[in-house]
């Protein structure tokens, strides 16, 4: 086999990158946009010693697991990369991906059934569209990037987001007169549109501009007036200023143009109901209905615990969900705004027994250790890169039970191994479909000190 060869192969499974895996001449070959049991023709693009990557040319015999995508743009848009696969079957594949991330370090019996998302349409309550414009006619383009490119798919309809977002993005396309900042037009202003909706369909809108402050010659009043009239559901409208050239979405400076500083989201599941104020730069789970189920699962595992640590706690989503009068919660979070929001959120939910610590998890956990402060249970929910090794090591000294929520099975498996080396044991891992139609996986591991 050499680069450029056209090969034929049968796909066996989907791997965590979202690609299909098949074998040709005994070599593992990854082909994107394929489903298990597809027979495909593909061109070898990258040949390595132990594997190859090939680009799909044609599906010769389609798999029975293929299904009609719910979105007409699914081939063009890079957001939902696996929408052409039957949902129930995709869940089975995700379950396998999660098991494989642990590479035989954990017995299969320890993986609990993977839970579906409560909704597979209109579940993602946050849109973050990069903006561009057409080269000649200068029309605004808004939508997700095509897979592995910086080319925008101009999205007019997205079934996984609230319908109001389509209307809003279209309004911006038609009414924004101050140009897009993009590779063709370095003078334009608008670089991203960020919208977040809550369960009442209220919206927080942030327009990210490529400037340090709004230039004097720009008068937004006409745009704003029309926006307010056509979208009464927008309860908070911000400008964010990001003058940098890099890929970072938000700049440091925000200006509230009208409405509330925060958006209030209510999570409700079974007999639990909590309210959360979310700021324009706060992290909050994008699929709140699924998040409420995950938090409830976590809560079940904190029954009887009196002292709980919520590390990487954000605006307090998990800590607040699991709290009740008998529990004392300590939240650790490094983002200053999230910390402020978390304090407010504890208050609006009438939770009295809480402490909030601002700073890096490792530093804060070490402070607890020095002060001999221990916890019946530590919930940790770090970003995709996982937890700092040092933070994990200190964690093992201040608690006997860790509930680890993660959006990256690879770093979860790595960190579970570190904890096991420190005398802990993973009791179970459960996957949840927080990100339907993609290869992404949310999982919760229950880890205890070995007796
Ligand atoms: C995946 S979010 C989880 C937030 C929250 N648990 C939730 O469900 O909404 C991860 C959070 O960890 C915070 N974070 C990232 N690195 C951190 C660190 N080294 N120390 C403390 N917090 C950190 C981020 O600001 C973010 O709020």
Task: List its traits.
alpha/beta, OB fold (Dihydrolipoamide Acetyltransferase, E2P), Rossmann fold, 3 domains, eight-stranded mixed beta sheet, 9 helices, 23% helix, globular, binds S-adenosylmethionine
Largest β sheet strand count, sense and barrel closure: 8 strands, mixed
From the helix content, strand content and strand pairing, which structural class follows?
A: alpha/beta
Count the domains: 3
H-E string: EEEEEHEEEHEEHEEEEHEHEHEHEHEHEE
Overall 3D shape: globular
Average pLDDT figure: 95
Question: What is the CATH first-level class name of the largest domain?
Answer: Alpha Beta
Uncertain spans = none
**Portion in helices:** 10-25%
Taking the alpha carbons of the first and last residues, their distance comes to: 52 Å
> Count of helical segments?
9
Strand order of the largest sheet: 6-20-21-19-18-15-16-17
CATH superfamily of the largest domain: Vaccinia Virus protein VP39
The radius of gyration is: 23 Å
Descriptive account of the structure:
23% of the residues lie in helices and 31% in strands. It is of the alpha/beta class and 451 residues long. The model has no long low-confidence stretch (mean pLDDT 95). It has helices at residues 87-101, 163-175, 221-230, 288-300, 317-322, 336-348, 361-370, 389-398, 409-421, and strands at 6-14, 20-24, 27-31, 39-47, 51-61, 111-115, 126-133, 140-142, 190-197, 203-209, 234-241, 253-259, 263-269, 272-278, 307-311, 328-333, 354-358, 377-380, 401-406, 424-432, 442-449. It is built from 9 helices and 21 strands. It binds S-adenosylmethionine. Residues 283-285, 312-314, 317-318, 332-335, 338, 360-361, 381-383 line the site of S-adenosylmethionine.
């Amino acid at each position: 086999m050499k680069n450029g060869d056209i090969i034929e192969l049968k796909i066996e499974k989907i791997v965590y990158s979202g690609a299909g895996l098949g074998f040709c001449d005994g070599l593992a070959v990854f082909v994107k946009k394929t489903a298990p049991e597809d027979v495909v023709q593909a061109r070898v693009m990258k040949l390595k010693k132990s594997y190859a990557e090939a680009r799909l040319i044609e599906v010769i015999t389609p798999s029975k697991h293929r299904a009609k995508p719910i979105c007409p743009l699914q081939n063009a848009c890079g957001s939902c990369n696996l929408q052409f696969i039957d949902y129930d079957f995709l869940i089975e594949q995700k379950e396998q991906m999660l098991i494989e991330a642990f590479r035989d370090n954990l017995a299969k019996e320890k993986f609990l059934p993977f839970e579906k998302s409560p909704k597979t349409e209109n579940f993602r309550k946050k849109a973050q569209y990069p903006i561009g414009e057409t080269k000649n006619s200068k029309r605004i383009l808004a939508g997700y990037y095509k897979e592995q490119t910086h080319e925008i798919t101009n999205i007019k309809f997205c079934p996984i987001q609230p319908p109001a977002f389509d209307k809003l993005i279209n309004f911006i396309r038609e009414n924004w007169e101050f140009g897009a900042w993009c590779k063709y037009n370095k003078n334009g202003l608008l670089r991203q549109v960020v919208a977040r909706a809550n369960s009442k369909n209220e919206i927080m809108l942030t327009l990210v501009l490529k400037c340090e402050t709004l230039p004097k010659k720009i008068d937004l009043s006409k745009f704003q007036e029309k926006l307010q009239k056509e979208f009464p559901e927008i309860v908070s409208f911000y400008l964010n200023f990001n003058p940098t050239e890099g890929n970072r979405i938000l700049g440091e400076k925000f200006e509230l143009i009208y409405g509330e500083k925060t958006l209030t989201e209510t999570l409700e599941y079974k007999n639990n109901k909590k309210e959360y104020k979310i700021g324009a730069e706060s992290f909050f789970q994008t699929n709140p209905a699924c998040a409420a189920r995950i938090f409830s699962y976590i809560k079940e595992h904190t029954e009887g615990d009196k002292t709980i640590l919520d590390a990487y706690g954000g605006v307090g989503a998990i800590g607040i969900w699991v709290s009740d009068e008998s529990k004392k919660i300590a939240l650790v979070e490094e983002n200053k705004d999230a910390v402020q929001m978390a304090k407010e959120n504890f208050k609006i939910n009438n939770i009295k027994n809480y402490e909030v610590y601002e700073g890096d998890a490792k530093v804060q956990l070490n402070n607890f250790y020095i002060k001999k402060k221990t916890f019946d249970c530590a919930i940790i929910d770090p970003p995709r890169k996982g937890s700092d090794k040092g933070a994990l090591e200190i964690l093992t000294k201040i608690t006997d039970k860790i509930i680890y929520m993660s959006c990256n099975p690879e770093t979860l498996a790595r960190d579970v191994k570190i904890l096991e080396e420190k005398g802990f044991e993973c009791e179970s891992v459960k996957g949840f479909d927080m990100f339907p139609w993609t290869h992404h996986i949310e999982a919760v591991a229950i880890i205890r000190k070995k007796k």
